[in-house]
Structure formats: C-alpha cells, structure tokens
Design goal:
- This protein is α+β, with helices and mostly antiparallel strands.
- About 50% of the residues lie in helices and about 5% in strands.
- The protein starts with a helix and ends with a helix.
C-alpha cells in the first residue's frame, strides 16, 4: 500500500491496541488487516490513504465476507480498527461502517450424553492413573527422607532417585564415552519412559490436559484460565475438620481492560464433592510447583507439568514462560493433540464448557444475555430437550394472540335481528363464550370486541375510535403493570379492528363522535379516568 495508507492503518491499529490484553488478539487483528489491504491492492485504483475509501469499496468488502462465520469475524475486526480514524467517523462512510454485522452462528455445540461420557471417562482414567502414580511415589519419597526405609534396599535406592527428581526434575543419567547418555537406573526404575522416571513425581503435559478437561466439565472454565490460575488458597474455617473450602482465582480477560480475577469458593466435603478434584489437582502438581518455586521464587501457578524437553525459545507470549523443566497451563495445540491422540476429534474444551453451562442453567463467568444468546438458545441439544416447552409456549402465545385481536365480523350496515351493546351489535348472546349460570352473556361490554358473535358496522366506528383514544390516554396515567393488566388487550383488539376497517375510514370517524359516544366511553373507562 501507499505509505500514507500504511501510516494511517498503523495509527488506527495502535489506537485500538490500547484495549487489548493478549498477543493473540493483536495477531488476530493484524492478520485481518492484512486481508483488508490485500483486497485494497487488488482494486483497479487502490486508495492512497483511508480518506480515499468510498462507500462502494466498503460495500464490496462487506459482500465478499458477509456470507460466512469467518467473514463476519473479519468484517467486525477490520471495522473496529477503521473506526479509530477520525476521518471515517462522520458522513456516509461512518454510516456504512456502522451497518449491523450479524453475529456468527455458534460453530460448537454441546456434547450428547454418550459423547460427553466418553470424553470424561478418558480424561478421568488418564488423570487418576497419574494421581495414583504420583501419590505412591510421594509416599515413598517422604519415607526415604524421614529415614524410614532400610538403607541399600530397592525401595531405598528408588527413594534416592526420587529425591533427585524432586530437586532437579531429572533422573540421574550416564554419559557414554562415544557420546549420548542414558538413564542410569533404568533396570531399577523398570524402564526409561516418563512414567518410570521423572513422571513418578510430575504430570506429563497430556495428563495435565486431562486434568483441565475434568475441571472444565466440572466448573465450565475457559481453556485460557489454566495458563495463569494461581494456586487455590484455603478459606478460613470455624473449626471445620471434615471438609475444606478452596478460594480459586479465575481470570476474566473480557470483563474489562487488563486482567481481572473473580473468586470462586469450592468445597471438598467428600469423594463426590466439587472440591475433591481441586484437592487431587494440588496433590498431583505439588512437586512441579515446588520445583518451579525454588528455581524462580514467587512462582505460584496451579497447572504445572514437566516438559518432555526444554523449550528452545518461548514464543507464546500470552502464556507464562517455563521455569526450568516445568511448564504451565494448557495450550491450544496441547488440547487438540489430546483430543486426537484419544480419537475424540479435536479439542474438547469449547464443547465441554458449553455442555456444562447449558446443563447448569445459569450464567457461569458471563452475563445473563451472553448465557441465553450464545450458549442456550443456539444449542441443538437444548432445543431438542426443550421442544415440549417451546410447543407449550407457542400454544400459549397463540392463545394470547387470539385473545388480543378483534374476534367478530365487519359489516356494512346494522342487522335488525342483532342486539345493540355499548361497543358492538351482538348476534346471539345465548351462545356467548362467557355464559352466566342462569343463561345469557356474562362478559362486560369491552370484552364484546373479542367475541365471535360481535358485529361492527360504520355506526360503531366513532365510538370505538374515541374509546381507543381514551385508552391510549390511560397509558401515561397508569403504571405499566396496571395498564397491561386492565387495558392492554382491549387496546390491541381496537388496533386490530382499525387495520380491518382501514385507516382512512377509522380516521374519518373521528369527526362523527357524538356526545352520546363520549358519555358511553366515559362510563366504560370511568374507573381509571376518575381523578
């Protein structure tokens, strides 16, 4: 692009960046702007600067992307940046940029019960095996350090290796004269794989991912939460010994500029309680957290695992850098790899979180509006489960709609065989939908407008037009609840009748309102017109 355009886009990008709190967001905006500039470069006459953009160019850009979910996201991000330029905040260009972009349809759905069970069983089996392995070796290490193991025995020799693993994160290795190295105590430990060596005290990254899957299913936490989740603290207890309550800090990046944390209190009161998973997470990550704290004092993150190999260069700047052999959190790549390695498709986190949120039935770490519009209403599983409720609601709405329309007939002239009422002519009061015990009609004169026996001819128009005006005047005199309860249906029936009569005839009837019409209408609404 021309240099003025480059500078203007850079300035707009910088202005928008003040609202960001992650490098991922910056990269996302950068890529979308790249697509926009490619589009501009392909024009017959690319503009030299942003003030050279036209409505037609923006419309072509919109037409190119509006048809897909991905395209809607591109349009939204590019528009946000362009609106930072003051030259585009007024006139036709501002109007074009302000055009509504439909929200993308949710691409993820909640799990069906069988698929959710499969994911959870897989995660539970993997994490439980790791927790049991680390617990068993931790007990042996503690006995060795306490001097409770016979020196020189097999257990003592394994305890000695465990002590080095706990202090350094690595097992003793033998360097060979011709190069390379191998696990020194391979036969003692039973192998050289992670589970037989350093994995005796540390979670692998896959096992940490399994733990995160279980946490998301239980608490509906976002994947990014695990990167910086502090170690939970114990809440003060008034002599309670049978249970423990943890205070968990959950990061909410979108709750405002910068990073924000909310506190969730989670209690471990037994094997099936929510807090039991927090207890096991603390036990399984204890050695990794202790090692990281010694290597870098002040490090206090819960989701810690031991890397298979050290990271040559830390490039994911949104996630904490590793401390020695210890890494933190669960990356997108780790989540996808976990799902594929267990033949579960891709990352399970979005679908698992959506499943928990829709089953919980209330907002979790988001607003009520987001809960309904993003999670509940678009979800196909919720829609199927709620079909009966929707059908009942639709029937109720239909009944209400029928109750709020004019239920009679429009005629050109009065019928001598009909009985006149205060609002309409009645064809047959004996067949009234609202009969009295002794026969006849029990409805009031306003309800006549809902009756199938009602007939309205031009002679009724002036009185009904005046009645409509008087009801509208009550709107400002009464509170919302009272007006809706007493007058809303009558207003809607009259407005439905106005459509059937025609606006011209209805308006012309205003000139024919008589004193008798006014008196009768005043009697009909006298309760709420009284001072």
């Amino acid at each position: 692009m021309a240099e003025p355009m480059q500078r203007s886009l850079a300035a707009a990008f910088a202005a928008q960046s003040r609202l960001w709190n992650s490098h991922r967001t910056a990269r996302n905006y950068w890529r979308k702007l790249g697509l926009f500039t490619e589009f501009l470069c392909e024009l017959d006459s690319p503009p030299d600067d942003l003030d050279g953009l036209t409505v037609a160019v923006l419309q072509s850009w919109r037409d190119l992307h509006i048809g897909t979910n991905t395209g809607k996201g591109i349009l939204s991000l590019v528009r946000t940046v362009l609106q930072q330029d003051p030259r585009l905040d007024a006139g036709p260009m501002a109007d074009e940029l302000a055009r509504r972009i439909p929200k993308p349809a949710p691409s993820k759905q909640s799990y069906e019960e069988s698929k959710r069970d499969r994911v959870m069983v897989t995660a539970e089996r993997q994490f439980r095996a790791a927790w049991l392995r680390i617990g068993e070796n931790t007990r042996l290490l503690n006995k060795w350090r306490a001097g409770d193991v016979l020196e020189g025995s097999r257990e003592w020799r394994i305890g000695e290796v465990l002590d080095q693993i706990a202090r350094t994160g690595v097992v003793p290795r033998t360097v060979h004269p011709r190069g390379g190295s191998s696990v020194t105590n391979r036969h003692l430990l039973g192998g050289w794989g992670p589970e037989k060596t350093w994995g005796r005290l540390f979670l692998t990254r896959g096992e940490l991912t399994a733990l995160a899957v279980l946490l998301t299913d239980r608490f509906a936490w976002n994947l990014s939460v695990y990167d910086r989740m502090p170690v939970p603290t114990r809440a003060p207890s008034a002599g309670e010994t049978a249970s423990v309550t943890y205070q968990v800090q959950v990061e909410k990046r979108r709750a405002g500029i910068g990073r924000w944390f909310s506190t969730e209190n989670i209690t471990d009161s037994g094997a099936d309680s929510p807090g039991r998973l927090i207890t096991r997470a603390l036990e399984a990550t204890a050695h990794a957290r202790d090692l990281a704290g010694r290597l870098r004092p002040g490090t206090d993150l819960l989701m810690a695992a031991r890397d298979h190999r050290s990271e040559p260069k830390h490039t994911d700047l949104d996630r904490p850098a590793p401390v020695g052999p210890v890494s933190f959190g669960v990356s997108d790549d780790m989540a996808k790899l976990w799902g594929r390695s267990h033949k579960l498709g891709g990352s399970p986190f979005q679908r698992s979180r959506r499943t928990t949120i829709t089953e919980e039935g209330r907002p979790l770490q988001h607003t009520q509006g987001t809960h309904e519009s993003v999670y509940v209403l678009p979800d196909k599983r919720v829609q199927r489960a709620s079909r009966d409720v929707f059908e009942d609601g639709a029937r109720e709405a239909l009944e209400q709609a029928r109750a709020a329309v004019f239920g009679g007939k429009i005629t050109d002239r009065p019928d001598p065989g009909h009985q006149e009422t205060a609002t309409v002519d009645c064809e047959d009061e004996e067949s009234s939908p609202w009969p009295t015990p002794g026969g006849g009609c029990g409805a009031d004169f306003l309800l006549c407008l809902a009756c199938p026996n009602a007939h309205v001819h031009p002679g009724h128009h002036p009185r009904l037009v005046h009645l409509h005006q008087q009801i509208l005047s009550l709107r400002s005199a009464l509170d919302d609840h009272t007006f809706h309860q007493r007058w809303s249906d009558h207003q809607l029936r009259l407005e439905n009748l106005r459509k059937k009569v025609g606006l011209t005839a209805w308006t012309a009837a205003l000139t024919r309102v008589s004193d008798t019409d006014r008196t009768i209408v005043q009697l009909l609404v006298k309760e709420d017109l009284a001072p």
